[in-house]
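Run log // design_07
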């Protein structure tokens, strides 16, 4: 897609559409303009009972579709969203979690339910980035999909400036939506074993009955 002037909300929605998302899971109020843009692009917005439920549903979506699942929560619900990522992390499921963060003036001043989020997400994600400018979006969003789907697939977290991420949503800039097809599904890379090891395994199994037990 050619570069064009757009809002942060339009860019986020366009990226999620480009990566093949059909559903997102969220608790109000977060990324409201993005949610409107997602509706216009045909992506279903699923309002959940709790932040943890949004994480669980994004996890289930990822496992069934073999594509990354996406969940949102505002700053006040970030801790609950982090708690819901434990299963996705241990189950190696690519969930992209997005939360808001109250502006810098509200940090470390006992603002309502505003605590440092990075320690909460560090144990349940493999990539965690603060997004303070619309100009970061073309870099951190593709990286989030790369991290979630490559290596050992696991959750990632993006934290947007603003209680509901509204500061980035309403800003405008000249942006280009670039989608890396490889990272629309997971695992994005399938490593091949060394030929010698394959031959050794075949030799060990030759002439034997092999039983495969698959599943949890």
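design_07 sequence
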């Amino acid at each position: 897609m050619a570069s064009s002037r757009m809002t942060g909300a339009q860019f986020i929605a366009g990226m999620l559409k480009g990566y093949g998302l059909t559903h997102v899971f969220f608790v109000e109020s977060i990324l409201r303009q993005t949610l409107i843009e997602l509706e216009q692009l045909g992506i279903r917005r699923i309002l959940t009972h709790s932040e943890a439920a949004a994480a669980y549903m994004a996890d289930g979506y990822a496992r069934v579709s073999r594509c990354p699942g996406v969940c949102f929560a505002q700053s006040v619900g970030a801790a609950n969203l982090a708690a819901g990522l434990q299963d996705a992390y241990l189950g190696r499921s690519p969930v992209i979690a997005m939360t808001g963060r109250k502006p810098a003036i509200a940090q470390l001043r006992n603002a309502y339910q505003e605590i440092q989020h990075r320690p909460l997400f560090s144990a349940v994600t493999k990539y965690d980035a603060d997004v303070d400018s619309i100009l970061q979006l073309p870099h951190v969003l593709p990286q989030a999909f790369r991290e979630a789907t490559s290596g050992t697939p696991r959750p990632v977290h993006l934290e947007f400036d603003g209680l509901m991420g509204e500061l980035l949503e309403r800003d405008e800039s000249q942006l280009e939506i670039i989608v890396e097809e490889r990272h629309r599904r997971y695992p994005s890379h399938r490593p091949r074993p060394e030929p010698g090891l394959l031959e050794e395994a075949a030799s060990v199994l030759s002439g034997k009955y092999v039983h495969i037990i698959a599943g949890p």
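Residues 51-65 form the longest helix (15 residues).
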